[in-house]
């Protein structure tokens, strides 16, 4: 049986391996330009950084700063115009859309502001989705999906559909879906943006718990209070890293 | 695995959008139904003519008719030609190697009389070969024999309707029928011949209205010599359908030598059949085009609705792509939906098509035959429509940029 979480055996008290020989993510001179007719728009201008495996990082910045573009590139939804992006030892900056799909499937788990669950599918089917595209058999899919739902405390609701859940519950399902393929990286884009403060804190608590278990998490937010809960903050302004803390 | 899941997803989608799917289906259903209906008509038509040919002497049958030439400048031999004669028939019978049966036929109207029934009827002078050639045999008594012909005997065989006409319920066998003031001994009554294209009219009723005497008797009674005896036509049978052109050629050559001018016409059922097949192909094509046009319309509806459904599901596509669906997987998911819908439509179309054929049969009394091939064809065309018209929406979905898709409200 494959383990669902990489560092499960170490338990929550174990020190996460914050520094390793090679960083999980290395960005070298990441530039993104959008060619909108006459004027070129520089969305990212030479982003350089390293994110180690197991880190809980937030990317903050005002709207229009380029943080969304950076998140798209980190999530392999988009490719940089220039520069190199090493993810888990692989240069993904030059991959084709099909290869990017494979990387997203195997190495990245997404959590979106708007949850993006399939409205007509049950929770179980929703969580199974990444494994479906990974070509994993039905029995294993169900077993792993149930474990992931258990992890976010929704295993009893597996037959429900997303519209029967509250916003916080939906986001928990999305987290289960993000976890289910044992990704190297969880990428959360304003995960509390559509939730009230109390529910938002609960979701952040889940991320903290995952982080303690050794999961690498990058969280994009504009909320300083949420950013304060992460161990490292990268502030983007005008397409460059303005500060790190 | 993915294929199977896509199909399951497709089925779920059909169920979730039942009304929309039904709309999508209408065109496909009608297209498939019209293919079923038209094919079953055409198949039944072909089967009926084949059956007609079989029951009336097979496709090996050939005819030779008189066909007076319009030419003014003729040589002596051509001028002397009397048209088709009994000796032509004997020559063909003697010499033609591709022919196994020759049945000359002379006919004439005459006053026929028995008891108090007196009528002018057509009399046919034939030979024994006539029976196997037309697959028409004596029901009671016997048909004409070779010795009847060689002796120019005064015997007569009646079609079933004629037997009733002159003899009523009496047994005509052994009775004497008067034809043109000469007594003929009734030696046989033919079986009743029946064939119908529409279950109403007997297409072979004319055969039951025949009166047969030996051809030699007719010629000599007319006061002609046997060699110069005029005959109206000659039916012959080729040995092999595969060599039909050779058989026609051979008979033509013999007659040309006899007449010196082409004042006759040789026809074969094979040639007729070829011509019919040509016509049938044209009908089939017309039918097919109608069916295909319905399917085209259906296909456009499928495409439209798939596009609408795609626009509705842009976020879903984005989500699927974000969690790792490759363009090919998305393409296949959308394509399998439209193929499934079309297959469902095709399947329903089979039943609607069956209703169509039942309607045709009861309205215009036209036979219809639904074959497995027709059903398979209709399904294939329906699935093909889904495949072709599902292509464009599927390509659009597969090429969707996930970032744009996820941003869409």
Q: Could you explain how this protein is built, in words?
A:
The complex is a heterodimer of chains A (245) and B (409). Chain A has 245 residues and is of the alpha/beta class. Chain A has one domain: Rossmann fold (3-Layer(aba) Sandwich), CATH 3.40.50.300. In chain A, the strands form 2 sheets. A 6-stranded mixed beta sheet of chain A has the order 6-7-8-3-9-10, sandwiched between helices. Chain A has a 4-stranded antiparallel beta sheet with strand order 2-1-4-5, covered by helices on one side. In chain A, helix 3 crosses helix 4, helix 3 runs parallel beside helix 5 and helix 5 runs parallel beside helix 6. Chain A is globular and about 50 Å long. Chain B has 409 residues and is of the alpha+beta class. Chain B has 2 domains: 185 residues, no CATH class; 195 residues, no CATH class. Chain B is built from 14 helices and 10 strands. Chain B has a 6-stranded mixed barrel with strand order 2-3-8-5-7-6. In chain B, strand 2 and strand 3 form a beta hairpin. In chain B, helix 10 runs parallel beside helix 13. Chain B starts with a helix and ends with a helix. The mean pLDDT of chain B is 85. At the A-B interface, helix 2 and helix 3 of A face helix 1, helix 11, helix 12 and helix 14 of B.
């Amino acid at each position: 049986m494959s383990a669902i979480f990489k560092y499960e055996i170490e338990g929550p008290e174990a020190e996460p391996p914050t520094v390793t020989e090679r960083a999980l993510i290395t960005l070298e001179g990441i530039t993104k330009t959008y060619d909108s007719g006459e004027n070129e728009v520089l969305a990212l201008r030479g982003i350089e950084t390293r994110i180690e495996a197991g880190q809980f990082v937030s990317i903050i910045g005002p709207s229009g700063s380029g943080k969304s573009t950076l998140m798209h590139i980190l999530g392999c939804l988009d490719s940089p115009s220039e520069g190199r992006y090493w993810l888990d030892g692989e240069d993904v900056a030059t991959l084709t859309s099909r290869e990017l799909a494979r990387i997203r499937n195997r190495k990245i788990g997404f959590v979106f502001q708007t949850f993006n669950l399939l409205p007509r599918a049950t929770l179980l089917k929703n969580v199974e989705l990444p494994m479906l595209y990974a070509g994993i058999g039905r029995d294993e899919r169900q077993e792993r999906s149930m474990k992931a739902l258990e992890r976010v405390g929704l295993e009893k609701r597996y037959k429900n559909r997303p519209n029967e859940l509250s916003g916080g519950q939906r986001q928990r399902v999305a987290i289960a879906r993000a976890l289910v393929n044992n990704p190297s990286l969880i990428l959360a884009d304003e995960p509390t943006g559509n939730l009230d403060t109390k529910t938002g804190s609960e979701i952040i608590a889940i991320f903290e718990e995952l982080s303690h278990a050794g999961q690498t998490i990058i969280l994009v937010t504009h909320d300083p209070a949420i950013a304060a809960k992460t161990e490292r903050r990268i502030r983007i302004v005008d397409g460059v890293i303005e500060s790190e803390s | 695995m993915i294929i199977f899941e896509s199909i399951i997803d497709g089925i779920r989608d059909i169920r979730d959008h039942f009304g929309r799917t039904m709309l999508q289906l209408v065109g496909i259903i009608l297209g498939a139904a019209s293919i079923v209906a038209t094919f079953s008509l055409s198949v039944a038509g072909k089967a009926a003519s084949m059956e007609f040919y079989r029951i009336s002497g097979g496709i090996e049958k050939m005819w030779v008719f008189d066909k007076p030439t319009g030419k003014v400048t003729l040589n002596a031999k051509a001028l002397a030609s009397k048209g088709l004669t009994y000796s032509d028939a004997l020559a063909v019978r003697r010499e033609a190697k591709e022919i196994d049966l020759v049945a000359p036929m002379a006919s004439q109207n005459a006053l026929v009389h028995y008891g108090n029934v007196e009528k002018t009827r057509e009399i046919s002078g034939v030979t024994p070969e006539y029976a196997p050639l037309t697959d028409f045999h004596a029901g009671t008594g016997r048909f004409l024999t070779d010795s009847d012909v060689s002796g120019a005997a005064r015997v007569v065989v009646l079609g079933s309707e004629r037997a009733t006409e002159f003899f009523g319920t009496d047994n005509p066998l052994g009775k004497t029928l008067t034809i043109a003031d000469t007594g003929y001994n009734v030696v046989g009554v033919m079986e009743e011949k029946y064939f119908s294209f529409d279950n109403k009219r007997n297409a072979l009723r004319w055969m039951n209205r025949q009166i047969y005497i030996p051809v030699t008797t007719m010629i000599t009674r007319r006061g002609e010599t046997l060699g110069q005896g005029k005959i109206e036509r000659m039916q012959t049978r080729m040995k092999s359908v595969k060599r039909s052109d050779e058989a026609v050629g051979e008979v033509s050559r013999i007659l040309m030598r006899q007449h010196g001018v082409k004042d006759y016409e040789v026809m074969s059922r094979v040639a007729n059949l070829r011509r019919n097949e040509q016509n049938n192909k044209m009908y089939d094509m017309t039918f097919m085009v109608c069916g295909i046009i319905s399917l085209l319309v259906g296909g456009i509806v499928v495409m439209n609705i798939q596009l609408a459904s795609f626009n509705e599901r842009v976020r879903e596509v984005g989500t699927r792509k974000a969690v790792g669906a490759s363009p090919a997987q998305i393409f296949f998911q959308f394509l399998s939906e439209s193929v499934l819908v079309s297959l469902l439509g095709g399947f329903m179309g089979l039943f609607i098509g069956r209703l169509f054929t039942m309607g045709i049969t009861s309205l215009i009394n036209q036979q219809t035959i639904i074959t497995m091939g027709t059903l398979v064809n209709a399904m294939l065309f329906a699935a093909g429509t889904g495949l072709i018209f599902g292509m464009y929406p599927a390509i659009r979905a597969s090429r969707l940029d996930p970032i744009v898709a996820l941003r869409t409200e």
